[in-house]
Every structure is written in C-alpha cells, then in structure tokens.
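User: Show me an example of a complex going from sequences to structure tokens.

Assistant: Sure. Here are the input components:
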Amino acid sequence: MENKVTDAELAILQVLWRNGPSTVREVNDIIAEERQVGYTTTLKLLQIMLEKGLVTRDATDKSHRYWAVVQEKAIQRTLVGKMLDTVFHGSSSALVMQALGNHEPTPEELIKIKEFIERIEAQQRDE
Amino acid sequence: MENKVTDAELAILQVLWRNGPSTVREVNDIIAEERQVGYTTTLKLLQIMLEKGLVTRDATDKSHRYWAVVQEKAIQRTLVGKMLDTVFHGSSSALVMQALGNHEPTPEELIKIKEFIERIEAQQRDE
DNA sequence: AGAGATCTACGAAAGATTTCGTAAATATTT
DNA sequence: AAATATTTACGAAATCTTTCGTAGATCTCT
C-alpha cells in the first residue's frame, strides 16, 4: 500500500462503502451533514482519488457515479497495522485491551471474540 | 482532546515515552536513525509541541530537557477511539479481530486477553 | 580573552492536503 | 430555442505540516 489515504479521502470512502456507488452530489450531501464542505471540494477529491486508483466511476451519464475500489477491510488492515507499529510497539494484546476498555462490546460480541481466540490457540497447538 | 497530534509529533512523543526526559539532540539522534532529519527541525517541533502543551521542559541548563506531558495511554485511547468511529463503525470486536489476525499474540498474551474478557463478562453479569 | 562548538529562537521556505472559484459542457424547464 | 440548473474539469488559493537557514546567545577549550 504505497498511497497514504488522507482523512478527507477516508471520509469519502466511508460514504461509498456504506451507500455503494454514488454521485458527487450524493456523497457531498452526506459529508455536508457533518461539516461544511463545498460541492466542488468533494468533486475534486473524488477526481484525485480516481487518479490514485482509490475509486472508479461510470461516466456514462452526466453525473458520474463513483464507487470504492479499495475495500474497507484492506484499509482496516493497513490502519491497524500502522497503529500497532507506532503506538502499541507491536503488542496486539495491548491494542485489544484498549479497544475493549474503550468501547465495551455486547455479551454476544465477547463470545465471538473468545471463539476467535480459541481458534488461534488451537492453531498454535498444531504448529 | 482538541489538538490533533501529527505524525512527526507522535514520533517525538514515542522517543520521550521510551527514554524519558531528553534533550533535543538526544531526540534527534534517535529520530535520525530512521529518516534523515535536521537538528533544527526537531528543535522547532519540540517548541511547537511545548506551545500546544504536549511536552514541557526544564530550561535551566543550556540544552533544555523535554519530556512528554501527554501520556502514551491517553494517545492510545484517543487513536483507538478515532479508529473505532471512523473505520470500524464503533464495533470494538471487529477491531479486536483485525488486530489479532494482523499480528498474532503469544499464547501468554492470549491468556491475558481471555482473562480480561472474563472480567468484563463478570462485570456485565453484576449489572 | 578569543576561537570554535553547540544551543535556542524564529521566520520563512517547502511540501502536503483541502478548499474554492470560474469556465465550459450537458441537461432541464419554460 | 432560450433561459436556467447542474455538472465536470482544473488551476490556484488557503491551510496545515514539516523542514531548514540564519542570527544571536551560551558554553568549552586553549
């Protein structure tokens, strides 16, 4: 992953991940709910993201429709990895505990996490 | 937390967290191992961080000694919180699984995490 | 004390990111 | 078909971050 994704780009990607293929206006309407952003700003960002290959578009109609090329999981992986390296010294357990302490999951989610851990443990035993 | 901590500032904070109160030269020597950075760049950044209140210093001696005011845990909390909001839709379990998948912890760490989860579960039962 | 080394302060350049204004093209309405 | 709306393209301004050069102060060594 050579290209860094900036904050403004990430905000746009989130809209595209959530809503699927969208026009500039649709994206901008949603971004503008949060903070004041002009239409051409969003347009310009999407054009930059197109160049970087973060998104693609269908330019058949007058208002082009954009969608994310980079997948949310890939960005999650990159960002978690960077965070592990920079502020957690590579300790995933420290990150995990911070995350759990930060925003407590539901009982169901806790069970899922435990199952996930047990799968890792089983795998480690086989090695 | 009003002030955003930039990447260059974070790199300096990491040195201060690891090594404790340090002079500009000491900080710069360590940063410069990784990437080429001039002495006055590090100096300027520390002065900016001083203004922002991220660090403080003892200016008794000629070479001032700086240390972090903001604690590593606080930054971890902030960054994990931001990440939860932006790319994980508030789902700490998704973040946890990404972290565990990303960089597998040692068996000992896994046990610590399980204990941590069990403490949360016990607490949830009491509510 | 004088020369040389090291340090701080700080403005300003350089670089990166975000924002917007304007022009031209395309669509819509009357 | 003319007037009005909306859209794209794109340069450039505005803003934020990082980097450095220079001046002057302080220390060290001879």
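The lines above are the inputs; the final block is the predicted structure for all four components together. Residues 23-25, 39-40, 43-44, 47, 59, 62-64 of chain B lie near DNA strand C (CB under 10 Å from a C1').
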